[in-house]
Amino acid sequence: MDQEYSTPSDATSLTVVMAQLDPLVGDVRGNALKAIEGVREARIEHHADIVVLPELFLTGYPPEDLLLRDSMHARVEEALETMAAQMASDVLVVIGYPALRDGKRYNVAGALYGGQWLHEYRKQALPNYLVFDEQRYFEAGNAPCVFEFKGARLALLICEDLWDDGPIERIKDQGVDIILSPNGSPYHVDKFEERVALMSQRARQAGASIVYVNQIGGQDELVFDGASFALDANGDTVVQAPAWEVGIMPVQFERRDERFVPLAGERYPWPTDEESLYCALVSGVRDYVNKSGFKGVVLGLSGGIDSGLSLAIAVDALGADRVHAVMMPYHYTAEISREDAAEQARALGVEYDVMPIAPMVEAFTETLSQSFEGLARDTTEENLQSRCRGVLLMAISNKKGLMVLTTGNKSEMAVGYATLYGDMVGGYNALKDVYKTWVYRLARWRNQQGDGEMIPDRVITRPPSAELAPDQKDSDSLPEYDVLDGILRCYIEGDESLETIVGRGYQHDDVERTIRLVDRNEYKRRQAPPGVRVTRRGFGRDRRYPIVNGWQPGN
């Protein structure tokens, strides 16, 4: 590309619109139409001169091995032609897509104006860590893209280019006014502050303003927060789009002393840690269910805090009319659990059934009695209860077209405190990457939001229990959750050794036992449903350990 074209007259002001939109991975035609509509809205509502959309927007991010299909690139080229023919001709549009050029695949940002694709920038820094594996799919570009539009010097950089020193260094002496940056930057706790702090440094390094446009919405385990923003050349935020909201937002630039500088505009406040994490879970569940085409969800409501929080998230994501809760009591289910589950279901207005599992458990026990003769009772009988519940939920799922939402938290999944083919049965898990201590924080936060008590207070304050045996408590089998979660963060997110974690003040026995449980239960996690990734290192895409191995805890 990089074609010659008639440069529009120099302007004294520019309106750059950040199009914070939610694509559907693989729906190239639909995403192209969404881009066309977004540009039309930006032109009508804000008289946009420039519109920037997120990274790889035409395919959705991340498209993964769809990129290896020849038909994918044929559809992308068709979409580029459609956009050139239908997009407003007096707006410069910057959008991300994959491009197959001379037999090599690139992650690019194209610039469209006047019905022509004028520039095509190839991403230089390809991330290959944690959830990212772009080096599997793309070749790295090796050249900057700087051009003039209406008298402003513009540069294109894509996502990781701004986390790497090289691409900024290559443009900082080219008199750039504005860096336009399409992004596919997934959320994790504390990502807002981390992202803006680094971009502020890059703006000062380049001596240029940055318009940072991020994707929004859920894609499998990843969730994108949006929270697009614009910085001036001093690294100060002048415009901040809201997190967790689809929409468009303008950034006004004015020519001063032969440079274009951004004017202060609307700045939405960052959400609190609890609000942001809760919104991430709601967004992940909503998009996974809706984009997968399910009518709604069904979940087991035990009267405990994990299922209670999961129910609240499901209702906020989908609406009460699309959520079905089922209480499946057994002999060890406390009366308080039955009462609290019924109260929450009634308060939230969801469909609610009570299905006792005693007849099922007894039938299995009788059938297995000869095979188990002479063997003492153990967790096998406990797990039978959980597996009976899984059968009921899957039957409802099949019959009604509802996805089973599982309810186990990250602390439990880490140490295997879950039943394979029992409470792990399902299609998605809102809490998969949420530590138990955070489950309590989120439950309390949700109850403080002014629309009534979503989770009964007794559910939050009573000691947690699986209720698979008489008087059972989680603390009978595990360290207290504040201790357990601290050890897990060190081991899972920090890859710290046993000795290092003990050196932080934890008891040796607690650490060793926890590490052995984490390592031993990798096989379970491989068979668990996907869930929203919200920490720096979740189970699934970015923590890959062998199931069978001889590794032992220690330095």
TrEMBL record:
It comes from the Bacteria. The keyword NAD applies. L-glutamine binds at Y129, S185, K191. One of its GO terms (molecular function) is NAD+ synthase (glutamine-hydrolyzing) activity. It catalyses: deamido-NAD(+) + L-glutamine + ATP + H2O = L-glutamate + AMP + diphosphate + NAD(+) + H(+). InterPro entries: C-N_Hydrolase (IPR003010), C-N_Hydrolase_sf (IPR036526), Gln-dep_NAD_synthase (IPR014445), NAD/GMP_synthase (IPR022310), NAD_synthase (IPR003694), Rossmann-like_a/b/a_fold (IPR014729). Transmembrane segments: none annotated. In the C-terminal section; belongs to the NAD synthetase family. Belongs to the NAD synthetase family. This is Glutamine-dependent NAD(+) synthetase.
